[in-house]
Amino acid sequence: MQPTTEPRDAILVEKTPLETYVPPAKPSLIGLSRTELADRLGEIGVAPAQRKMRVQQLWHWLYFRGAQSFDDMTSISKGIRAELAQHFTVDRPEVVAEQISNDGTRKWLLRLPSGDNLQKAHEVECVYIPETDRGTLCVSSQVGCTLNCSFCHTGTQRLVRNLTAGEIVGQIMVARDRLNDWADREDGTRRVTNIVMMGMGEPLYNFDAVRDALLIVGDNEGIGISRRRITLSTSGVVPNIVRAGEEIGVMLAISLHAVRDELRNELVPLNRKYPIKELLQACRDYPGASNARRITFEYVMLKGVNDSLDDAKLLVKLLKGIHAKINLIPFNPWPGTAYECSDWDQIEKFSEYIFNAGYSSPVRTPRGRDILAACGQLKSETEKLSARERQALRAMAMTD
Ligand code: SAH
Ligand code: SF4
Fold first, then answer.
1. Catalytic residue among 126, 152, 283, 375
2. Does ligand 2 come within 6 angstroms of the Cβ of 377?
C-alpha cells in the first residue's frame, strides 16, 4: 500500500491479518431471493401457507430496515426468530479496514471466505464517493480480475474468484450500516443513492451472481435503488451485454479506452476475442438504450498512447448512431505502472472536441487518491503477478 498522508484518525477500522481464517459456521441469508428465502423457511419447518407472509417480513427486515440480528425483527414470532438464528445469520462481509480520504471518500476492505482453501481469506474493496447531489457506491464483482488490462491495478492481483450474490449485496449493506443509512435515518434522506459496478472484477464474467444481486438491490420493497441509478461497467464481454439489458435492465458503461483494435488489444486484451466492431454492435442492440438512457463510454486518458485529437475524431465517428455519452477518466497511476496520465491541456482539448461534436464529455474527477480508492486502483494486499503468470491468466480468460 502507498503511504498515506492522512492523519491516523482517518482510519476508522483496522484489524490485523489472521493467521488462520475460520469460516462462518452458519450461512447468511443476505443475497437470497424471495424464492430462496421461502425454501430456507420450508427447511426449518415453516408451513407452506405461512411462507409468503414470512418472506415479506424477512425481506422488509433484511433489505429495507437493514436488521443486524434476528432479535431486531420484532414483527416475526419469537419461535421462528429463534429457529432462524439457530440455522442462519444475517452477517455481511467482515470489515477489516475502513479509511476516509481527505475528500470524504471512504474505502472498506472486506474479508471473505476463500473459495477453495477454507483456512484462507480473500479480500475485496468497496468505495463510497459522496457528492453534492448523490452518493455513489463503487461495488466489486470478483476478487481480482482475470482480464489483465495493462493499465489496471486489479488485473495484477494474484487471487481471483467470483463473488456470490450475497457478497455483492453485502457490500451495499456494509456501506448502509457504516454510514447509518437505513430507512430509519432521522432526516429521511439517503447517503448511498447510486451504485456503479466499477470496483474489482469484470461483472459480466460473474453474470448470474451480479444479476441476482442487482435485482435485490433494485427491489423497491427493499434496498430500493432504482435501475436507472445502477450502472454496470464492462470491458466488453459481448455475448453478455444484451443479456444484461434483458435480464437486469440497468445502465450500461463500456470501458472502450481505444478506438483502433491494435491499441485496444494491448490495453484491454479481451478485445482480441471481442473486437471493437462487435462490441459497438452489442451496444446498438442494447435493450432500452435511448436519449434519456444513454450508454456511457469510459475512456482512460493515457499520455501519448490514446489521447491525440485523431483518436478523439475517430471516437466520435465510431459512436455515430449510438445513444452515447463519453466519460474521460484521468489515468490513476499505481506503483509499478509504465503509463502516465495525459496532460491536463490535452484532456481539455480532447474533451472540447467531443463536446463540439455534440457529446456530453465530463472528465471524471479523481477521488480518494490518498487512500488508493480511485478507479482502477483497487487491489488487495496480494502481490503483483509475474509477467508469465499474467500471460497465463490472460490466455485462460481468452478461452472462457
Ligand atoms: N471490469 C470492469 C469494471 C471495473 S473497472 C471494466 O473494466 O469496465 C472500472 C473502470 O475503471 C473501467 O473503465 C476501467 O477501465 C477503469 N480503470 C482501470 N484502471 C484504471 C486506472 N488505473 N485509472 C483510471 N481508470 C482505470
Ligand atoms: Fe478487469 Fe476492468 Fe481492470 Fe480490465 S479494467 S483488468 S476488466 S477490472
1. 375
2. no
Is the CB–ligand 1 distance for residue 376 below 6 Å? yes
Residue 116 in grid coordinates: 477453495
Cβ neighbours, 10 Å, residue 236: 26
Give the residue among 258, 212, 215 at the shortest CA–CA distance from 235. 258
Which one of the listed residues 123, 125, 167, 298 is annotated catalytic? 125
The answer on pLDDT for 91 being more than 50 is yes
Atom of ligand 1 nearest to the CA of 202: 1
C-alpha grid cell, residue 152: 489496471
Q: Provide the greatest CA pair distance for the chain.
A: 69
C-beta 235 within 6 A of ligand 2: yes
Residue type, 91: D
pLDDT tens profile 128-171: 999 988 999 999 999 989 998 999 988 777 768 899 999 999 99
375 is catalytic: yes
CA dihedral 174, 176, 177, 183 (to 10 degrees): -140
272, 397 Cβ separation under 8 angstroms: no
Q: Which listed ligand is nearest to 202 at the C-alpha?
A: 1
Instruction: Based on the residue annotation, tell me whether 126 is a catalytic residue of this protein.
Output: no
* Atom number in ligand 2 closest to CA 146: 1
243-297 pLDDT, tens digit each: 999 999 999 999 999 999 999 999 999 999 999 999 999 999 999 888 889 999 9
Its pTM stands at 0.90
Dihedral of the alpha carbons of 47, 52, 56, 62, in degrees to the nearest 10 = 50
Residue-range domains of the chain with CATH? 34-87 (1.10.150), 92-399 (3.20.20.70)
Instruction: Give CA separation, 383 vs 170, 331, 336, 339, 386, in Å.
Output: 26, 21, 12, 19, 9
Kindly state if the Cβ of 174 falls inside 6 Å of ligand 2.
no
What does R_g of the chain's alpha carbons equal in angstroms? Answer: 22
In this structure, the chain runs to a length of 400
Q: For a substitution probing ligand 1, which of 136, 152, 305, 364 has the most ligand atoms within 8 Å of its CB?
A: 152
Please tell me the distance from the alpha carbon of residue 376 to that of residue 369, in angstroms, as a whole number.
11
215 CA → ligand 1 middle, Å: 23
Cβ atoms 200, 143 nearer than 8 A: yes
